[in-house]
């Protein structure tokens, strides 16, 4: 396995320290040890990245679509070849089990491949004219320099969608990657460098998120932003982008409901939902959280689900037997504890879990709460941890009403054997994504995004490239 390196900025094709020499510590969440230092970008570094990205855009927009496709395909292959080493780095600073890190990197390579293919399909139109001798056509052209802001929970996945869409369409990009999990983003950028992306096209910075976003977004060089993170921060950045007429894609927080009907295959529901709930220690924007189980199925589902949660092996992600690693940072533990205490004070039953594990590392027990009051904090704010909230319902309409009660609309889950119920849920559940009887989210070729307070735009599927393109209309009389 590789040593964990100190992490530098990448600007104009060069790995470099911050101009002012500032660094930040990198902490292993499984041991609480400092494992490296991270270069901290300040204003001079951002100015250099902006200048480089503007230069890079001039080169990349004029690079043929087929050449862009070839470079991206090469980057995807390099990412696959380096998967094991990068997964080790990801697990060191993020905490998730090695198998989950490797899976994230593998899907990242598939995402690059998929967007590389889309680069060759950014078609315009020839529009039939009303008058003879008139040609009317549209062209799709890259919007310009992109600023991307990404979180720590999926260090490669959250960047690779934005980066691939930008490169496929001919844009250059400045990535503000997560300070807590910086190593795998740096290695992702390195594969593009090694694949032959010209200097300046891809740039990578770390630092104080608010300072970087509030400088880059208004800057005239930047023409589009893409943000993944919390709803409050997303609303602030969307407002800032709107003030300066910048395009924005917002993938924000969720609070995913799970509707389990009495006619469902309950064993399947348990086997699918328990590991999905504990994936990445529940630190997933689409993590299933509010479990709504029809009364006649409740006891069997709860018994099986709790048993699956309790049998999950929690430990250091480097241990191949670990199924759930630590929380990513120290602040998540008191946040979880506060939500659990609040729910109990409002009458919830703590079925299992609820406590920190040990005194070293940010480990927390898989937790299940039952009969949780709708006014509990956990039922309204995203827990972002290994916490499942289980309530019962009697009727279809009651379940849909609770699923739609919150202003979030990112992802929803359902389990039923009824085709009629499935069809109704597709129309009635207010969510950007609904997956029934399995987990079918986040594939490169399908949409990924929410509605309402969960944001707007999509970062998957064919629609994902459109925000990076401008439609230009040209008409001529010959």
Q: What do you see in this structure?
A:
- The chain has 13 helices and 22 strands.
- It has 478 residues and is of the alpha/beta class.
- The strands form six sheets. It has a seven-stranded mixed beta sheet with strand order 14-15-16-13-12-18-19, sandwiched between helices. Strands 9-8-7-10-11-21 form a six-stranded mixed beta sheet, with helices on both faces.
- The longest helix is centred in the first third of the chain and has 22 residues, at 98-119.
Describe how the helices and strands are arranged.
Elements: E1 9-11, E2 14-16, E3 23-27, E4 34-39, H1 43-60, H2 65-81, H3 83-94, H4 98-119, E5 125-126, E6 134-142, E7 145-149, H5 157-169, E8 172-176, H6 183-195, E9 202-205, H7 209-216, E10 222-228, H8 231-243, E11 247-251, E12 256-260, H9 266-278, E13 288-294, H10 295-310, H11 332-345, E14 349-352, E15 367-370, E16 387-393, H12 396-403, E17 408-409, E18 411-415, H13 419-428, E19 433-436, E20 451-452, E21 455-456, E22 469-477
Parallel strand pairs: 7-8, 7-10, 8-9, 10-11, 12-13, 12-18, 13-16, 15-16, 18-19
Antiparallel strand pairs: 1-2, 3-4, 5-6, 6-22, 11-21, 14-15, 17-20
